[in-house]
Design the sequence.
């Protein structure tokens, strides 16, 4: 599927507010609701839209500590990367993992109630 400017606008608008109705979305991208819904379903079925989430105000949940850490793997074989990713998927406090360049391989973001 090749994206056109309307598809890209749909993605942009949904990033700002994923809870809007199809009618509201159609209005924002200057389409009628039916073609907008067809495009939206195509974007979903082609994997451009993986799902919808809620942004949580972590501070409202109580005391929270955000920690960033950089990780360098000792070896850089494909199996080492796969083992590392499998291991970090089990860490409940890990909310983001980014591949980075430079002196480190990954930047991890944790949110927790404390260190210990």
Sequence:
């Amino acid at each position: 599927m090749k994206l056109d400017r309307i598809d890209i606008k749909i993605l942009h608008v949904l990033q700002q507010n994923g809870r809007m109705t199809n009618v509201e979305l159609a209005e924002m991208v200057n389409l009628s609701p039916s073609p907008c819904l067809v495009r939206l379903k195509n974007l979903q079925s082609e994997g451009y839209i993986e799902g919808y989430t809620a942004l949580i105000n972590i501070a409202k949940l109580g005391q929270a500590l955000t920690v960033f850490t950089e990780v360098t793997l000792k070896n850089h074989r494909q199996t080492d990367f796969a083992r590392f990713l499998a291991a970090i998927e089990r860490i409940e406090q890990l909310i983001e993992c980014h591949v980075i360049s430079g002196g480190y391989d990954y930047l991890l973001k944790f949110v927790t109630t404390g260190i210990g």
